[in-house]
Fold these 4 entries.
Entry 1:
Amino acid sequence: QVQLVESGGELVQPGGSLRLSCAASGSIFSIGDMGWYRHPPGRQRELLASITRGAVTNYADSVKGRFTISRDNAKNTVYLQMNDLKPEDTALYYCDAVITVSRSAPPRAYWGQGTQVTVSS
């Protein structure tokens, strides 16, 4: 009964900033890699950033220097700080996490439902 829930998406003006959150809840033994994706309408989904449990990060070229991924292992939460937002950043943003639900269970990927980010003047 693991659940990932994103929050923080809203309408913002170009040049603005947002911080997205994704919290995992339910039966969780441990969480491995976590990441953020976005899916613009009518276009392919894109991996934006990933972060390991040890906080090693990786970014797509499209957001490098503007977005920052971080995590709080004690809260089972991953964040995406987005600065200098542009209209082309408009998309549904969602997170994923590799979660082990018990000591005897194999890890698997879980996905959230997404939060809408709209950048417009």
Entry 2:
Amino acid sequence: QLQLVESGGGLVQPGGSLRLSCAASEVTLDYYVIGWFRQAPGKEREGVSCIGSSDGSTNYADSVKGRFTISRDYAKNTVYLQMNSLKPEDTAIYYCAAEPPRSWGSCLKSPYFGSWGQGTQVTVSS
């Protein structure tokens, strides 16, 4: 299992922005599919976005399309989730996840991934 570390969460007002980071210190994430998930209290874990390991493909939940952007910084071995126009319903713990490319499944679904970070809290409130 990979050791993943998320950072960048915090408290932000509606309409504001945050950038989350997902990093691994001992392996390169270039070869992994990376996903971002979130879970609010009392709700199921939801796939937010994911990015392919080689084809550069990205996927987004309908609820965040046009507001969130996933990207890689290969030099820093880091994957980002830029979150703009934040809404109160975006409040959740956000997790990053990693998995070598599979021949099956969707990277917006939790079973795709075998490695998970510890989570970072995002709170959108006035």
Entry 3:
Amino acid sequence: QVQLVESGGGLVQAGGSLRLSCAASGPTFSILAMGWFRQAPGKEREFVAAISGSGSIGSNTYHADSVKGRFTISRDNAKNTVYLRMNSLKPEDTAVYYCAARAFVATMKSDEYVHWGQGTQVTVSS
């Protein structure tokens, strides 16, 4: 069983920055691929970023085109935590942001992740 707890969301003005954190329970964090997804009101859940776990091959990180150059995913295995640094925030980034986990290999498909956090609200005002 993996428990994920997001934090760091809030209200920020356009152009501002936030750092989201996702803390995972258990000693198996290092092998987990971690992803960030978001869902805006009335919209479908959207891939944001992902990072592979230890032992995987191929690309280490992925970022959606809509956030590339502004958002950066990273992880600290010693702290069992994955981060999403969000810079130059836009009103279009307003959404509930969810942390998710799967084994080893990062993907961009939400239905391939089996562990999910409760989400954290990010609201960007204009």
Entry 4:
Amino acid sequence: QVQLVESGGGLVQAGGSLRLSCTASGLIFSAYSMGWFRQAPGKEREFVADISWNNLNTNYADSVKGRFTISRDNAKNTVYLQMNSLRPEDTAVYYCAKDRTAWGSRRYDYWGQGTQVTVSS
């Protein structure tokens, strides 16, 4: 019954921006930390960012720190990933995921279907 649906992906030129959204249903969204991951062609899935239930704690992969911002709107059951200064190496399918805890355990039990982000040179 838990469903996570990503949106906002697309094609963007290097240096551009995109904002991804992940809307959740079937759970008490505000009770859980949420994360973003990505998987590039031929590569393993990697952690991008996560956020605690109340927006107060965030973490970022070194590769995106300073460029990406994770946020959430619990009233909308939505977590966002604002991606600025995009690079071709950011090209990947981006997934949102539900953490098992409110503050973040890095253990995830539900995943979205993903949204494609392609950054051209």
